[in-house]
Amino acid sequence: MKKRLLAFGLALFAAVSGAAVSPVAPEPVYPEIARRVVRQLASAHLSGERFGDRLSAVAWTNLVDSLDFDRTLLTQEDLRRLEPLRTQIDDRLARGDLAFGYDLMQLIRERLEARCDYVEALLKEEAPFDFSKDDTFVWKRRKAERPADAAEQKALWRAALKNEYLALTLAKELDAEEAAQAEKEGKPQEDEDEGGYEEENLEEPVPEILAKRYRNLRDAFSEMDSETVLQRILSAVANAYDPHTDYMSPMNFEDFNMEMNLTLCGIGATLRYDDGAVRVMELMPGAPAASDTRDIRLQEGDLIIGVGQGDGPIEDIRHKPLIRTIRKIRGPKGTKVVLRVIPVSDKTGTRTKLVDLVRDEIKLEEQAVTGRVERLALPAGERRLGYVRIPAFYAGAVGGDAGDDARSMTRDLLRYLQDFNQEHVDGLVIDLRNNGGGSLMEALSMTGLFVTGPTVQVRDARNVQVLPSRGAVAFRKPLLVLTNRNSASASEIVASAFQDYGRAIIVGDSKSHGKGTVQTVMGLGDNQVYGADRITSACFYRINGGTTQLRGVVPDIVLPSIYDALELGEDQLPGALPYSEVPPAYYAKTADLAPYLPKLKAASDARLAKDAQYQASQRLIAHVRKANAEQTVPLNIDKRRERMRAERAMQKLQDEALRGGTAKARKDGPTAENDPVLREALHILSDYIDLRGGPDQPVNTDGDLGLRLFRIFGGQ
User: Fold this and answer.
1) How many domains is the chain built from?
2) pTM here?
3) Which domain holds residue 301?
């Protein structure tokens, strides 16, 4: 029976495959790797689900979409023929059969060869396209329908090439216009050392640029070796559980260990394979990318499509294995890497930027807590409010030797709190924007500086554990916490605990990042032979019982930033684990903020209606949201020219918003002058202090219900 199933699968591929392209075959040890991965996923993943037909179907979709990300290489007719494989992957992997994945890769490579040949022939024509017609192209193809058959497929290939041809033609035209205008106004040209915008060497003719682009695409797929294909297959299987669960091949695992041991230096960015390119998911505080304050720099959400070393040529990395791209970006301390990037602000990818960075280690000082006293001018006089910015939840392991002298985020924060107490501030703003998390123990210790009681619940496959705050309360004045779409993990634990207790007002984007899961790296045996799994083994839950997963922390008052309009967050990842709940922890609210919120919101709205800087930012956010919702672009040259001019004008504003304003503003960090959200947060906190009856009103910091009941009924 097994032989008949295998023969049936191979026959399906033979029916849709054609041209001769040298195949890649699995190594002898790969069947055992596949069996071990499937067994470990079933036993160690938080869900406890066996890899059966349901997950098999998800894994099949993952694999197909990872190899045919823009849905142009396989037709609906192909998928109908291959349909039986959807629910066979579990059975095949159980017996170590990986042929289906290698056969699918072979089919993809052959289709890509056919597409490249077709494009090459079109580009040799003198005038291949008519741009006077009112055609459109669906550029967002992640969820688009695949072509029905080979004829529709060729029409799609032609439309895609027409879109690229038109975009590059107009990019040349608009660049020339901008250069002429800059020269007329006497503006200096971009300094090469400061990075700059460029469109893939636009001095070349458009057909040559596109021909080179497709040659690079062909080369990228032809270079995929056996281990790379194994990685694609088993990652598709692991990702069927959730997007953070993954398989690491021996080469990937070796690189992971180097990163954990800090034996390699790089730019300090978390990267993810996305639509054939490399998406920047997070910039690590204190690392070269996050410390860069130039106008043109790397941003979260950017797509890296090329990597160069020093002053050498930039290599196109599209469709190449992620691990090889990461290795190109890493390198010896003090050396330069140049990245060609599609900005997160340019959804159609018609404009790229060059970012050069010098590789270095993470500098703790640049991710350390900073703080100051803000003086707010009010009709009744000046109000003094504390402000602290926490870029990361760092612990001693990052900053130096263990022990009392080791660097700790909580210890650094405590020093500011002691200063604020001595200076008699009336309240405190805690800025957790762009804080991607870090040490769970630091999150518990930080919470303990402001409230006592349970802080977070952690559920694994066996039970739910309640983790309390640690340490003694050090600040007993009103709080406000700022979050945005990039506030994740430990940031969400702290913000949600403060919100559940009523200890702080939460202000920021419509929600935080929404990553509420914990991953554990588990070996499969000899890691140099079998690799390892990174498995989601636990999930964080608020003390009110709801998880921070997917939904994040919804603020009490929404003041959206530009990040709220971008496709960032856990809810943007395919297959993310759903929101869920556990029973609430045993805790007591320290205050009920609900009665205050309507008045705080009304006063805030009235102020912001008169704030020109904030209103300008909201117009930009509305434009970006509208642009992200558009699925098509015009292929008429006049309409496209008008649209690209408007997009370029808005991109400049969006880039400035993402960068954080002027170079001085980025160097100084968020201030009430350069940051309208922070400015308004200070006013909201001041209003809250007044609504409570003034700064002398005591603040309850006891959220430990058991201790509170003991005091009441035990006579303490």
Assistant:
1) 3
2) 0.85
3) 263-358
